[in-house]
Design goal:
Layout: E1 16-19, E2 33-36, E3 55-61, H1 69-72, H2 82-91, E4 97-101, H3 114-127, E5 132-135, H4 140-153, E6 160-164, H5 169-179, E7 182-186, H6 191-203, E8 211-214, H7 224-239, E9 250-251, H8 253-258, H9 261-264, H10 276-294, E10 298-301, H11 304-317
Parallel strand pairs: 3-4, 3-10, 4-5, 5-6, 6-7, 7-8, 9-10
Antiparallel strand pairs: 1-2
Length: about 325
């Protein structure tokens, strides 16, 4: 007698968000990417529809970053040219999206001008046809001016812009409304702040299907369990009908994984830890795999071999084995 599996049907689903715009839609992208729409827990195909697969965005910066050598060698010769860097991520490494981090704008760092940063975004838009995610440097004053300029310069492209937080969401929300972009709502691993921020943004009349949540994850060994629990509660809230927790989730996997010392510490210092490159790749890939199981829709990643492992994992998870 076949085993009868208990199936739990949800009352609601995650919002869908579409990124990018084709020429027919007023943009220049070769195609759009839609995320979300899940009507069940992650990859529970037997309980509800999972219409869109999670996607991987590879990171490109406007200045050459101080990354560990195993990362830098993958992009040798292109890290000072964001357009070529993005093209390599798409053409050779299969990135679904490009994540442009404008760290060069930081007043305490390179302090690049707003005009230089806008030129970088335009350069990347011309180099690739995939949709773009663009975030600032983390300085609130600089990012306010910077992201408003990017939103205007890329009007019609339907970017995903960030980061909107409790103390700076108004200007970015207004820019996304005027120039028709999507927004990243970033909260500090707190489901109540996450929900409140979504309420504040939606009260400015930005539609819910143009908001993506960044819950501020931790990497493997550095808070991943807490991040997992917050994301799991967010998905459960969405499936139970809470509109203010129903947005797709984005995870900064590459940044979090590669700042863990286990991902980059030399083998000479820790001989028992094994090869540093293999270790870093697996640290990023396992972090991403955990976030997928917690409900991630967009993974921001760095190492191409970690990307390949995770995309293979997604392929397998998206197979609907009927029960």
């Amino acid at each position: 007698m076949p085993v009868q599996i208990l199936k739990e049907k949800s009352r609601a689903a995650v919002q869908t968000v579409t990124l990018g715009a084709t020429p027919e839609q007023g943009g220049t992208r070769s195609h759009t990417v839609t995320i979300g729409g899940d009507a069940a827990l992650p990859f529970h195909h037997f309980e509800g529809e999972i219409p869109h697969r999670p996607v991987v965005a590879m990171e490109v910066q406007d200045i050459e970053p101080e990354w560990p050598e195993p990362l830098k060698k993958c992009f040798a010769g292109v890290m000072k040219e964001p357009g070529r860097w993005a093209e390599k991520c798409v053409r050779e490494y299969g990135a679904d999206l490009i994540y442009v981090k404008l760290d060069g704008a930081d007043p305490e760092g390179a302090n690049r001008t707003v005009e230089q940063c806008v030129a970088t975004v335009k350069e990347v838009l011309q180099a690739v046809g995939v949709p773009l995610i663009v975030v600032g440097c983390g300085d609130n004053e600089k990012d306010k001016e910077l992201l408003e300029a990017v939103a205007e310069a890329a009007a019609g492209e339907n970017l995903l812009l960030g980061n909107a937080e409790q103390n700076n969401y108004q200007s970015l929300t207004a820019a996304c409304m005027v120039h028709k972009h999507n927004i990243i709502a970033r909260s500090p691993l707190d489901i109540n702040i996450c929900k409140q921020l979504n309420i504040l943004i939606s009260e400015m009349n930005l539609p819910l299907n143009r908001i993506v949540i960044d819950p501020s994850i931790g990497s493997l060994g550095y808070g991943i369990e807490y991040a997992y629990s917050i994301m799991e509660r967010t998905r459960l809230g969405a499936l139970q009908g809470d509109k203010m927790l129903s947005m797709p989730v984005l995870c900064t996997v590459g940044y979090e994984a590669w700042r863990a010392k286990e991902a980059y510490a030399p083998v000479t210092n820790f001989p028992g830890w094994g090869d540093v490159e293999e270790r870093g790749i697996l640290w990023e890939a396992v972090t991403a795999a955990a976030m997928l199981q917690a409900g991630a829709h967009v993974l921001l990643m760095r190492h191409p071999k970690a990307v390949a492992l995770v995309k293979e994992n997604i392929d397998r998870l998206m197979v609907n084995n009927a029960y």
